[in-house]
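Human: You know discrete backbone vocabularies at least as well as I do. Show me how you would write down a chain together with its backbone fold. No explanation is needed for now; the record alone will do.

Assistant:
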Amino acid sequence: MNGSPMLRSARRKNLANYLSRYWTLYLLLALPLAYFTVFKYVPMTYIQIAFKKYSLVKNVWEMPWAANHGFEYFIKAFSNRDFLYALRNTIVLNLLDLVIGFPAPIILAILLNELAFPTLKKITQTVAYMPHFLSWIIISGMALQLFAPTTGLVNILLGRLGIPPVPFLNEPNHWVATYVGLGIWQSVGWNTIIYLAAITAINPELYESAAIDGAGRMGRIWHVTLPGIKSTIVVLLILSLGRLLGSEFDRPYALGNALVKTNSNVIATFIYINGVRGLQFSLTTAVGLFQSFVCVIFLLGADFLAKKSGERGIV
């Protein structure tokens, strides 16, 4: 019988033998588990601030519930014009990053893979991923020196060519283009490494077979390289879609200014201005909770569609 004392004793003995052999692995696992528990899961108890009237002198469990069955601050957020602008800007900027920036490392990885000179390939790859290690404060300082309307190097060169200065950082539409372009420049090289690693895993015999069948360079890229890295593209696309409503703080805050506030104010900067500086903790917690909820919905939806199309997904 399955529940016999002899069988239970054998299972306990097997478990003891297993733990005696692999206890060091579980000991190594204890540290990251403790980190996530203390710094990730325990602070989640404060999510309820979104549904309560925040008080500096009361414990989170003692704070009174907000009006409208706890949804007072969600209603206030969607009645706030600045939040609606931040929501719109977050979606627009992230969509532009996705549509324009997502294919860039794929294209660069394919181009690097096709280079015939290994030394040139290594130099190009190194130069391309170096901006990843620069903070956005440094990049914003460089952008100001390059793209300032009157003193920027780019506009000085344009002026000598008889071209009027371009307001890269001072006019909303030009600022958006500069924002997206700098984002691609900063991240394209680092993301290229992932695709290059996927390309190196492709069986070289597939390229030889394609060449024997008469496929040219573009044919080999289309029929061998792209299908070979399709799973990697899908996984990274799912992760990118999961961040569609997410927003980084340092990039828009460092590049933004008062002249382009209508386009540079995103959810992260809205939370900083109203939460950290404005002390509206319940309001900004509600905004952050809404943002996280929508990001999870996008992530699960993208994963579901990927699995329906025959890919593995990530969940």
User: Anything to note?
Assistant: Residues 149 and 167 are 6 Å apart (CA to CA).
